[in-house]
Structure formats: structure tokens, C-alpha cells
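Q: Please design a sequence for this.
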């Protein structure tokens, strides 16, 4: 008799253990308002934040130095974000050039690109200008970081900016980055030394070493060029129309 009871007890014990193991999962699903066995939703509505300075650098051409910054940050979800972008150049004489601040809303339209719209303010040592902004930003084919933005001001001025860069991994930590920025305007603005047409270019090549992903010092060389009416305004103001400079700085994000 006892030999028959032992197998029956073993079966009952196994069944009870299985039921107990399944009970917590069912209870958790019920607590979250999810029907047992239902597909759980994708958690893509969390709020995140990110900020990066691609350029925090000194620029030197043998006679004078500049300090240049270019950074941006955002807060939001995977699909909708609020952006702040800032760039400018502090000259050795204390004047501030090319000061641009952008405040944008973006919405993801594909896996790799966001549509952006908002405001741009030119805040530096020259007269302030305000613009409406609309553009795209994302990762183009072959992993090019790309920003294309159009601007319109209350005075009827139109402008466009293209920024692109590419990270070429020489090793896991040593990275070569070509970068370019182009600006185009439909009307001249003598007070800001900006001419109509293809206005200026800022392009460079930087070699950085990533001690960590969030901190990378770099060395490089950049070219700053002005063209057409913008070059004429620069000559009249006693400024250079084309300059090659060595750069040293850090790239950091958090």
C-alpha cells in the first residue's frame, strides 16, 4: 500500500509546484491591467535627456587664437523631443561671432530622421536677428550625421544651413572625423557682414581619442572661408576671407 502512495504523492507535489510557479506571473499581469497571455506593450514613452558638445576647442593660425563651441541637447521620448542647439566663436579681441541659438521641437518621421521646427536667434557682438526654423536631422546612408535647416526672418530674409560629419573608426578608441558646415542667404545683411548667395564654409578634420565614450580630446585642422558679398564685407571690416587653423579641444556628452 505504501509503495502505491509514494508515486501518487510525488505527482501531486509536482503539480502543486508548477501551479505555484505560474501564479506570480499571472498576478503581476493582473496587477498591471494586462490579460494573462496578452502581448505586453512596447515601453517607448519614457522621458530621456541627452547633451553633447561636438566642439569645445581652441583655434590657432600662428598669430591669434579663437575659442569655438558647438553643442546641442534634447529632452523627450523616442518620437517627440525638445532641442536646444548653440554655437559661436569667441575672438582673441573679445568679440563674439557666429553666435546662433536654436530652440526646436522634433518628431521622428523615420527610424533615422526627425523633422524639426522652431526658432533661431543670432546672439553675438553684432545686431540680433531672429528666424523661424524648419529642417531635418538624422543619420544618412553610410552613417553620415546630417542636419539640413531652412530659416525665414520677419524682414523677408531666407537662409539655409547644411551640417554633416562622419566618424571613421581607425581603432575602437581612435576616430577620425571629417566635418563641414555651409551657409546660404538670399539677401545681404551688411550689419552682420553677411552677403547674399553662398556665404561661408567651416570645414575640418579632427582626430580624437576616446578615453571613455563621454570624454575624448582631439587635435585637427580647420578651414574657415567666406565668399561673394560676405568676403567683400569681411575685407572692408579688415577681416580674413580664408583661414587655416590648427585646433585642439575635447568632445564630451552626458
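A: Design:
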Amino acid at each position: 500500500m505504501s509503495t502505491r502512495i509514494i508515486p501518487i504523492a510525488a505527482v501531486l507535489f509536482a503539480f502543486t509546484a508548477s501551479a505555484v510557479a505560474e501564479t506570480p506571473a499571472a498576478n503581476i499581469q493582473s496587477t498591471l491591467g494586462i490579460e494573462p497571455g496578452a502581448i505586453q506593450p512596447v515601453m517607448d514613452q519614457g522621458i530621456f535627456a541627452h547633451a553633447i558638445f561636438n566642439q569645445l576647442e581652441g583655434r590657432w593660425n600662428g598669430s591669434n587664437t579663437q575659442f569655438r563651441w558647438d553643442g546641442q541637447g534634447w529632452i523627450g521620448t523616442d518620437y517627440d523631443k525638445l532641442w536646444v542647439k548653440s554655437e559661436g566663436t569667441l575672438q582673441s579681441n573679445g568679440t563674439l561671432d557666429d553666435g546662433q541659438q536654436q530652440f526646436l521641437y522634433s518628431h521622428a518621421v523615420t527610424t533615422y530622421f526627425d523633422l524639426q521646427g522652431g526658432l533661431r536667434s543670432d546672439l553675438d557682438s553684432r545686431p540680433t536677428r531672429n528666424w523661424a526654423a524648419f529642417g531635418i536631422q538624422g543619420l544618412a546612408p553610410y552613417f553620415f550625421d546630417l542636419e539640413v535647416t531652412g530659416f525665414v526672418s520677419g524682414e523677408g530674409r531666407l537662409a539655409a544651413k547644411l551640417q554633416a560629419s562622419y566618424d571613421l573608426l581607425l581603432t575602437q578608441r581612435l576616430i577620425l572625423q571629417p566635418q563641414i558646415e555651409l551657409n546660404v542667404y538670399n539677401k545681404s545683411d551688411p550689419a552682420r557682414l553677411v552677403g547674399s548667395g553662398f556665404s561661408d564654409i567651416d570645414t575640418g578634420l579632427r582626430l580624437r581619442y576616446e578615453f571613455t565614450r563621454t570624454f575624448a580630446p582631439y587635435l585637427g585642422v580647420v578651414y574657415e572661408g567666406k565668399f561673394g558679398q560676405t568676403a567683400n564685407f569681411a575685407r572692408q571690416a579688415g577681416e580674413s576671407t580664408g583661414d587655416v587653423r590648427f585646433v585642439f579641444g575635447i568632445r564630451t556628452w552626458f
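Q: Thanks. Anything notable?
A: Confidence is low (pLDDT under 50) at residues 1-26, 28-32. Helices lie at 2-31, 228-236.
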